[in-house]
Each structure stands twice: as C-alpha cells, then as structure tokens.
Amino acid sequence: MRLLSAVIKPSKLDKVLEVIQESSGVVSLAISRIEGFEHISHLTENDLLEPMLYSKIELVVEDEQLKAVHSSIVECCHTGLSGDGRILVLPLESTFRVATKEYL
After folding, report:
1. Where are the strands (E) in the chain, listed by range?
2. Spatial CA neighbour of 5 closest among 24, 41, 32
3. Would the pTM of this model clear 0.90, i.e. be above it?
4. Among 19, 26, 34, 40, which residue is least crowded by beta carbons within 10 Å?
5. Residues in the chain with pLDDT values less than 50
6. Which residues contact 3 (CB under 8 A, 6 or more apart)?
C-alpha cells in the first residue's frame, strides 16, 4: 500500500472526490484545509509571501491502483498554471484501525 497525499485547489475538491469514489483500491481517505506556498525557492527576501488556501487529500491506496488514482487526480486538477498543487506518494509500512484494534 501507498500513502498518496494530494494538495489541490479547493475548487477542484468535489471533482476529485467524485473520481476517487469511482476508483477501486482506495482503502481510506482524509481531507484537510491547509495554507501553503508554491515555488518559494525563486523568491527573494524582499518578496511578500501570501499563503494560498488548499485542500489536502490523504489516501491509502493499494499498489495496483496507485497509477490510476494518481492519473485521475492529475486529470482533475491540471490547468498548467502555478498553484495547481502537488502530489506526494510514500511507501506505507502498515495501517492500524483503532476501533477494531486490527492491522489492515
């Protein structure tokens, strides 16, 4: 399994959730509202940083479905403009359901 963390524009959230609901292989999902910055490496010390609002979706995805889920999110969010977001994919060693005290 993998942890897929997608930081996207809030206006794209409903469309992404719709696509994810149609996908198989998604084990769990969490959504957060966050603030962040894009491309801060090119800024100088005189630049004023204003955080942008984003939605963060964290998904536990089965390895076999990772590419399909990743591609679906990209298709929903890509405009070609700065601020479209970012997707991180991390290996997931285990996941534990607290309510049932079981590893998945």
Report:
1. 2-8, 26-36, 52-61, 85-91, 96-97, 102-103
2. 32
3. no
4. 40
5. none
6. 58, 59, 60, 61, 88, 89, 90, 91, 92
